[in-house]
Design a protein that fits this description.
The chain has 863 residues and is an alpha/beta fold. It has 4 domains: 3-201 and 395-456, Rossmann fold; 203-330 and 474-513, Response regulator (Rossmann fold, 3-Layer(aba) Sandwich), CATH 3.40.50; 534-584, no CATH class; 596-721 and 763-862, Rhodopsin 7-helix transmembrane proteins (Rhopdopsin 7-helix transmembrane proteins, Up-down Bundle), CATH 1.20.1070. Helices cover 43% and strands 16% of the residues. It contains 23 helices and 27 strands. The strands form 8 sheets. An 8-stranded mixed β-sheet has the order 10-9-11-12-13-16-17-18. A 6-stranded mixed β-sheet has the order 1-5-2-6-7-8, with helices on both faces. Helix 1 packs parallel to helix 4. The longest helix has 35 residues, at 659-693. The radius of gyration is 53 Å and the shape is rod-shaped. It starts with a helix and ends with a helix. The relative contact order is 0.07.
Length: 863
């Protein structure tokens, strides 16, 4: 918890207890003051107080000077703390409040017959001093007495200031407080903060705007810096939560220390981090040196500055160079008429008793100051060489770079808001009774503050929202410090703005106007962006902003860098080698133009077709010879023709499959091959019958007629035809495209429709071949010249071996290679039958014609 808030809460609780005691003992705020009001005390050397009487007094708490702690002890030193080194801009802010009050008092239409006074303190940023000063303002004199008012005239109606820790204390006493730089208080819901108002936007708007800026530039790995005075600790935590909502991770939250050795270690942490964007939280007035060193070590660092930096134009060249090209979200100030001339006249000649102006005269102009005690103390502490500046004019505007600073406009607006609320209250209550003290109407003032509404001199509608803040425009500024012909110049460029839409916040950025340190948009990611073809992968052990890069899976692409997901290609497309785009899949089939297997199979099929035709022509030429007659000419002719057609049906398996070829190829092969195997079976049966019929008195002679061979062929082939017809009727083959079996390929193939009918067709062929093989094996010892049983045995052995080996190979392959296996089986089995059965006969017909005679056949038979 913020240390300042803790102290404030403790003090406020004590004050509230005293308040209750005072209420129980009766009001102590009568016209005749009690004894505390008769006490007096000398003002301390470093009591920065401003007072002007009026009918209504406005209290003010400001931080102009800073605190430094001393170890050395001098009798004249403050016993605990020393306030020194004033901030000129903050002093100008205090003067702006005085200017606004004087301007209102000069107007006769805003608060007629009423003058505003003020009672202001510079607390040096010390929370304890702030409590004392607030109680002093309430009491009416320097001696702070809780629940006592020594004022006879000009009671305090409200407070304006920058110390947010005072909001709770003021809420106890019912005083309204208007802040000009503490939007964080708007998020508090405690009743003690019901009197709090601010002239800035709700801090959540700034958090969401910063988050939107991170998302816009894809900065998901950023750092946060806070000062050691805890002014940015709560802000940093709220900002971290808001960034996480937008999937932006915080690489580090570093609270700097007053010990430079500790800061050096933290500097190394930042230097070794991948974060190129650092967000500044809190008021960083004591850590300029750290930022200078950081910018020197990491030139590519881009700072997102706190709004309090909007007045940092007076800083030295080193710090301006360090924060060059930074971005800041701020309320852009508006020009206030006559303010510049008022500040020009604010110098030691016309304000000789101004305590802060004395410090400015010493620290900024190196002049002697009228306060001898303070001059003596400064000489003990500082080594500044001062001179006598009597008679010179030293306006503070010479130390202020821009009078349209948003802080000036906000505090100017705060005074006018209070004046308008007082005006409306007086109109409604018909003035203020001279005998009524302001603590009687300060509760009413809260209601009128919430309802205040007017148009200021810039045309801006001034109305508090439900949170008690003003919806003033927020702009994104780019700080540019560059060397030109006339020297180094510093300027800000409006590069965007924040747009509010109900509960949403949008950051509109004009990228072309922004200047970056490196000339291009910085990259602030935990890890490098994943290239195209890869996606983000999130290991469990690191933050969600940090990721690995995983290559897209098969069938997926990513065509943008740093992609969250890969996208699947359409079914007919496939990623290219880099997985960046989808390209059409290659189409695979046994092509006549591109596949060498097609050429090989075509050549083999044609070769054996020609051989079959030659054998057929030879058998026709020797049609009437004994050998041809003995081998059943019609059956042999049928066998040769079916083998020829089986060789030619291979061409139905080649080329791009279409529905017609898919219907014909398996059916034609099954039919022609069944005729071939049936013919072989018929030959085998006839060999068995003839062998048995040659015995005397054999009853097998009646089965020796040729017509029974034809019956065997027709019957066995008809069964295959029936299987094929049923196949076509139930589930016919069709052309299909296999998109998934092979990566990156579309296999154009024939879908067999029904595997049951397909394997039934093959199984029937196998059955015929097995029967032929068994029968032929049984009669293989018959005379060679008379029968061909031995050759049929070898041909069926080849046939069965090929198809038994083909089935597992067929089932284990896909696409064109599966078709190639079937073609190979067809060619091999047909060639086996052709070679084993007909080559021996052709050898006799052509090479050994002397054996082609009846005598030779009879001799063999008798043997």
């Amino acid at each position: 918890m913020d240390l300042l808030l803790i102290i404030s809460d403790v003090v406020s609780a004590v004050c509230y207890l005293l308040f209750l005691i005072g209420e129980s003992c009766g009001r102590r705020t009568s016209t005749s003051p009690p004894s505390p009001c008769r006490l007096s005390s000398n003002k301390a050397m470093f009591q920065y107080e401003y007072y002007q009487e009026g009918d209504i007094t406005i209290g003010g708490i400001f931080t102009v000077n800073h605190l430094i702690e001393y170890i050395q002890t001098y009798e004249i030193f403050h016993p605990r703390l020393l306030c020194t080194i004033p901030n000129v801009k903050n002093y100008a802010t205090l003067m702006t409040l005085i200017f606004a009050i004087d301007e209102i008092n000069k107007k006769s239409d805003l608060l007629p017959n009423i003058t505003l006074g003020y009672h202001l303190y510079d607390t040096c940023g010390d929370s304890i001093q702030s409590v004392q000063n607030v109680l002093s303002i309430m009491t009416g004199q320097q001696l702070e007495v809780p629940n006592y008012s020594c004022r006879k005239h000009g009671e305090v109606a409200a407070f304006i200031g920058d110390m947010f820790s005072m909001a709770q204390l003021l809420g106890i006493y019912g005083y309204s407080k208007i802040s000009y730089n503490d939007p964080d208080q708007l998020s508090r819901t405690n009743d003690l903060y019901r009197t709090f108002f601010t002239t800035t936007q709700h801090e959540d708007v700034r958090y969401m705007a910063i988050s939107g800026l991170m998302v816009h530039y894809k900065w998901d790995w950023v750092g946060i810096l806070t000062p050691f005075d805890n002014s940015g600790e709560a802000e940093a935590e709220k900002l971290r939560r808001q960034l996480n909502v937008h999937k932006v991770c915080v690489a580090f939250i570093i609270q700097l220390s007053s010990d430079w050795s500790i800061n050096s270690e933290k500097l190394n942490i930042i230097q070794n981090s991948n974060a190129r964007v650092i967000i500044i939280c809190g008021k960083f007035h004591l850590h300029y040196g750290f930022l200078q060193n950081l910018a020197f070590l990491r030139e590519n660092i881009t700072f997102i500055l706190h709004e309090s930096w909007s007045s940092a134009f007076h800083m030295g060249a080193d710090i301006l160079q360090a924060i060059n090209c930074s971005l800041i979200l701020t309320h852009v100030g508006q020009y206030i008429p006559d303010l510049e001339s008022f500040l020009d006249s604010t110098d030691v000649t016309n304000r000789p008793n101004d305590p802060i102006l004395e410090d400015i005269l010493y620290f900024y102009f190196a002049c002697f100051i009228p306060n001898e005690n303070k001059q003596f103390m400064f000489e003990k502490v500082y080594t500044i060489e001062v001179r006598n500046c009597t008679g010179g004019s030293y306006p503070i505007t010479s130390q202020i770079a821009r009078l349209t600073n948003p802080t000036f406009y906000q505090i100017y607006t705060a005074v006018y808001i209070l004046a308008h609320a007082l005006r409306e209250m007086m109109i409604t209550t018909k003035g203020i009774n001279n005998g009524e003290r302001t603590n009687g109407f300060r509760g009413k003032l809260q209601r009128f503050l919430r309802k205040v509404s007017y148009i200021d001199h810039t045309g801006q509608d001034i109305t508090f929202n439900k949170n008690g803040g003003l919806s003033l425009p927020i702009y994104l500024l780019n700080w540019i410090y560059k060397k030109e012909a006339s020297g180094y110049t510093f300027r800000t460029v409006d590069v965007g703005y924040v747009q509010l839409d109900e509960k949403q916040v949008f950051v509109i950025v004009f990228d072309d106007k922004i200047q970056w340190k490196t000339g291009k948009i910085p990259q602030s990611q935990c890890t490098e962006a994943c290239p195209t073809g890869y996606r983000k992968a999130y290991p469990k052990h690191i933050q969600f902003c940090c990721n690995d890069c995983a290559q897209c899976s098969a069938g997926e692409i990513s065509n943008v860098s740093d992609s969250e997901h890969c996208y699947k290609c359409p079914d007919d497309e496939w990623p290219d080698e880099k997985k960046v785009r989808c390209i059409p899949k290659s189409v695979e089939f046994l092509s006549y133009t591109t596949d060498i297997l097609t050429s090989v199979f075509s050549s083999i099929s044609l070769f054996f077709s020609v051989i079959t035709l030659i054998i057929l022509r030879t058998f026709i030429f020797f049609w009437d010879t004994p050998l041809v007659k003995a081998n059943n000419r019609i059956v042999s002719f049928t066998l040769l023709v079916s083998i020829l057609l089986s060789f030619l049906c291979v061409f139905l398996f080649l080329g791009r499959p279409v529905d017609v070829t898919c219907l014909l190829r398996q059916i034609s092969f099954g039919f022609f091959f069944s005729v071939s195997v049936s013919s072989v079976l018929a030959k085998t049966i006839m060999v068995c019958i003839v062998f048995r019929a040659t015995r005397p008195g054999s009853s097998w002679k009646k089965w020796m007629e040729a017509k029974y061979s034809y019956y065997v062929i027709v019957t066995c082939s008809s069964i295959q035809v029936l299987i094929c017809v049923l196949w076509l009727l139930v589930s016919p083959p069709y052309q299909d495209a296999d998109l998934y079996s092979y990566l990156g390929k579309i296999i154009i193939e024939c879908n067999e429709g029904s595997d049951i009918w397909f394997y039934s067709m093959l199984g029937y062929l196998g059955l015929l071949a097995a029967v032929s093989f068994v029968l032929a094996f049984m009669v293989r010892t018959l005379p060679d010249s008379f029968n061909e049983a031995k050759y049929i045995t070898f041909s069926m052995l080849v046939f069965c071996s090929v198809w038994i080996a083909m089935i597992p190979a067929y089932l284990s392959t896909k696409g064109k290679y599966m078709v190639a296996v079937e073609i190979f089986a067809i060619l091999t089995s047909c060639a086996g039958i052709l070679v084993c059965i007909f080559f021996p006969k052709c050898y006799i017909l052509i090479m050994k014609p002397e054996l082609n005679c009846r005598k030779q056949l009879v001799e063999k038979l008798n043997y």
